[in-house]
Amino acid sequence: MYKKILVLVALSLLTCGISVAQNYNDALRLSEADIISGARSLSMGNAYTALSDDFSAALFNPAGFALIKKSQFNGSLNYNLFDNKSEFFNNTDSYSNGATRLNQFGVVFPFPTYRGSFVLALGYNQFKDYNYTVRFDGYNSGNNSMIQDLTSYNDDIAYLLGLSYPVYDNGDNYLYDETRVNGGLNQSGKILQEGKQHNWSLSAALEIQKDLFLGITLNIVGGDFRRDRQYWEEDLQDNYPAGFLLDPAEPATSDFQTFYLNDIIKWDISAWNLNLGLLSKVNKNLTMGFAVKTPRKYTIKESYFVDAYSDFGSGTSFYLDPPIENRLEYEITTPYEFSAGAAFNKNGLTLAADVKLIDYSQIEFKSGLNRIDIENNNRDIQEFFGTVYNLNFGLEYKIPATNVALRGGFILMPSPYKDDPSDYDKKYVTLGLGYDSRNISIDLAYAMGWWKDIGDNYGSNVSRIYQDVSRNNFVLGLKYNF
């Protein structure tokens, strides 16, 4: 009888629909800058605002297209290896995941002009990679658990699995749910994320006066995101032995063993924005560039799936039958991005530096959620996020009497969270090699990044995963002039 009641309740929940909480972390996932770019630009630390003389101009400064004198095709392939060393209640673990994608292809067409230059470009750029993973396993001796967290919200999942029970007043009116679980559980799990953001872009650039160039790019953004979390709570210490009922009215809930939860989020991502750029040749050695990215206006089509079960030593298991599924659509707008850069070239050596300003507190939920959730999310964004200055440095040295160029760079991307220590800033060292013949260029790039991160399974700092992240990107690029 108990199982039949659970199934009926689950069906009624599906009929009514289940609200999934979207929050400021979801908005940041869309907005935070990444390092994905072409091979030459990445190997120079993405210090490209004052260079941008290949198809990567669509990402950094579209005015750079006006420097290109020959029609060209650009393409590149990116491999991303993400490794995460975690610490969870003094236990350490390591988990990694790789992804290989075609991250750039495009064509550039200069047109004959009476004076100056006019250039059009069309193509594809991947600009964000969601490759991420973490695994953890440890005994939480505290008096907390996800079971208790779910119960505190009167979440029906705990009830459906025999982990909590309803409390009524003397008039048999429902008051709240309660659980007899009080921590002391082994907690383990793993999270795997994958996906990307990309844009199809149309760019135009021209020389508006001698050595002064202006450019614009229209981006049609697409992408996908998938997050798969598996989570277990187990009574390995026998704190809830035979005869101890989690539901005093149900003998089948004796001798609790395991609670398992699997939740999967999928996004279909679409947006658009403009990139505007200005580039000036100050003299024969010095070039300066300025660029603005307008806010991306995102529409997110989300699907959410939850499956769960519980096992008891009585031989009984309870399942969500059927699993919970939900779909919704909402809108988020990202902040403006302002970039300035300079490049100095002399005797085959190029030095470049960029600074980018992003005020993450300008991220905004727009529509699709109820008004209270939108207002609460936007208040959280204002409270937790601040302004950052991303720094990029790069160099390139063309070896005399050869067609070979050596490259290197450094990237600093401060954490968007206010008052985060510097350990949480993303730092990258980049290296690269280029071979340039008359019509064909081949470029190789490598970027090694590292930073710290944290993640809470529930609540705040009661079931926290401390993470040491390293990320390695390899890019192979090809440019053909025709």
Automatic annotation (TrEMBL):
One GO MF term, please? long-chain fatty acid transporting porin activity
Q: How does it sit in the membrane?
A: Multi-pass membrane protein
Q: Which residues form a coiled coil?
A: none
In which domain of life is the source organism classified?
A: Bacteria
Q: Which UniProt keywords apply?
A: Cell outer membrane, Membrane, Signal, Transmembrane, Transmembrane beta strand
Could you tell me which Pfam families the record lists for this protein? Answer: Toluene_X
What does UniProt give as the signal peptide span? Answer: 1-21
Q: Where, per UniProt, does this protein localize? A: Cell outer membrane
UniProt similarity note: Belongs to the OmpP1/FadL family.
- Please identify the protein, giving its name as recorded: Membrane protein involved in aromatic hydrocarbon degradation
Origin organism is Melioribacter roseus (strain DSM 23840 / JCM 17771 / VKM B-2668 / P3M-2)
